[in-house]
UniProtKB/TrEMBL annotation:
Protein family: Belongs to the GART family.
Domain Formyl transferase N-terminal: 2-182
UniProt KW Transferase keyword: yes
Name recorded for this polypeptide: Phosphoribosylglycinamide formyltransferase
Catalytically driven reaction(s): N(1)-(5-phospho-beta-D-ribosyl)glycinamide + (6R)-10-formyltetrahydrofolate = N(2)-formyl-N(1)-(5-phospho-beta-D-ribosyl)glycinamide + (6S)-5,6,7,8-tetrahydrofolate + H(+)
Pfam families: Formyl_trans_N
Documented EC number(s): 2.1.2.2
Cited SUPFAM superfamilies: Formyltransferase
Amino acid sequence: MKRVVILISGGGSNMIRLVESMTGDHPARPVLVASNDPAAAGLARAAAMGVPVAAVDHRPFGKDRAAFETALLGPILAAAPDIICLAGFMRVLTPGFVARFEGRMLNIHPSLLPKYQGLHTHQRALDAGDAEAGCTVHEVTAALDDGPILGQARVPVMAGDTADTLAARVLAMEHRLYPAVLRRYAAGDRTPVFLP
Ligand code: GAR
């Protein structure tokens, strides 16, 4: 059984879908949900589902990302993960942290990568006049929002969309895509998943 650690920064709706998916004949189980924000709503939601939680506030570390990551590594290593899923984890990781988990760390990003790495993906898709948007699950490498694509899901951009309405449509697909990719990945299959 593969041990999965999920890193979050906020509400954790993707985390919830991942945790809910890991039952029955699924080849993985959640062993820890950790956040850089002690107030992240997802922590209480994970605890309510019976998953151990940890919080390491990044703020006292200021710009010292490596020191923050050293603190975060404590609970992560104690959980002995086989796979780490970034699920709305909004801290950029150092190459050193990424190297430690390369080949076993996934991220979900709310755009059709390689388009719109970074922030404000939905507004940028609208500003560009794109006819479709979507989300991508990829392996994490040292370059931000890069790395081999493990799954992608597309949604139409509708007339009158705002960044919020488009984000909601994309998020609904994230909730389908990430569990589908994790199931396949945990079984050792890196063939990309394409939805719908
Ligand atoms: C999701 O839309 C995820 O794709 C995005 O944050 C949201 C988290 O929502 N991630 C990024 O932008 C990473 N750069 P959630 O906390 O409800 O899962």
